[in-house]
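Hey, can you fold this one?
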Amino acid sequence: MPQLSLSWLGLGPVAASPWLLLLLVGASWLLAHVLAWTYTFYDIVHRLRCFPQPPKRNWFWGHLGLVSVAAGGVWGPPLPRSMAPDGLSLMSAAIAPKDMVFYRFLKPWLGDGLPLSGGDKWSRHRRMLTPAFHFNILKSYVRIFNDSVNIMHAKWKRLASEGSAHLDMFEHISLMTLDSLQKCVFSFDSNCQEKPSEYIAAILELSALVTKRHQQIILHMDFLYHLTTDGRRFRRACRLVHDFTDSVIQERRRTLPDQGLDDLLKAKAKVKTLDFIDVLLLAKDEDGKELSDEDIRAEADTFMFAGHDTTASGLAWVLYNLARHPEHQERCRQEVRELLRDREPKEIEWDDLAQLPFLTMCIKESLRLHPPVTMVSRCCTQDIVLPDGRVIPKGVICLISIFGTHHNPSVWPDPEVYDPFRFDPENTKERSPLAFIPFSAGPRNCIGQTFAMTEMKVVLALTLLRFRVRPAGEEPRRKPELILRAEGGLWLRVEPLSAGPQ
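Sure. Predicted structure:
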């Protein structure tokens, strides 16, 4: 048998068995990859030295955990002018898809829905889902928004009559947006604002568990997480949500008529709303191929998840800002009263949405000050050259701070001041469209942003028509999780208004 000299390891000649050769090849392969990774890492670190950095906690943790959002503002690395907003246009390009470090925690729940898919699959699904957010579809949802907010307001009036007008806006508005979404997505009324719903409880639990897992680094490993109590709760809640969605899809497939989208729109307009599941079942790509049941479930579950928390956060914070600025609140109220003065019942219709300019300005300024999603991540698939010549190397994961962009004093003077007139048309002419990105930007921006703005306008208009909102207790501290919350809840006092003019 041939002899193999290992004198460089301090060993004499040994028999060159196949297993020993395999071990040496494997060790060499591993060593080569470690060296290549180390070289790449240090090369990237060297190339990133041209960007300003905050002080490190220590050599091991680096900057981890230093970015925080509190009542006083945001602390983090200074935002270079080249990155705000010109750099954002490059970071939101197709060459920088979403990073999956965090998003993968959602995959067992949301599958390959739009936020988690990439490449050709994402492009195909995005094109197929676009008709679901056409104004002809959204128009029919306005009635649902009115109905859901009416239920919430009836509850508020009952609580106020019992002396409990001190309310956590997140708790009440989240249930209301989930109620709306179940009706818009599935045409299903769970009465979840009035009684417990297993499905709604499962969605709330999944959101909380994903947030909790993200904060526990050791549980980022799947095999460890699935051994924990939280991991078992997560799988159980996923099954419940998936079973509900699957049952609706199967039932709808049996009853959906064999006709095109335009014909179905006309037919259902007379009897019911065309819901999200209907549109997905009828969707076809340019080759005439339909979405699979698994794809439909992923997109429906994604809409339920992404649509309730973000809208609830936006509404809770705009009510908070108007509670702190009663002069703006009163101007919004008068605008709504003027619009609905001769109408009974007093409900918002699709054509009314363009007739509420000041209320819209108040919503946008609140979304600037308190964006529901505080940051998005992108992974660079190639070197990105910024306008000033600096380069973000390929492979770098970039966290794009929506909160930081909205609070950049070079773009927004006195950024902590709530001033709706920033969004007066005269004041927006010279401002970059990337200075205000509550729904992200670029090809992967939020497909449901018109849906969200429509719901916020309806809910805010009717709320201010029927209630006066006032601050309650201490100033809330911002708490960024999946969406921007407030520590301990966002508490406001609501006072019912009489039906007549004030």
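The longest helix spans residues 293-324. Let me know if you want another pass with a different chain boundary.
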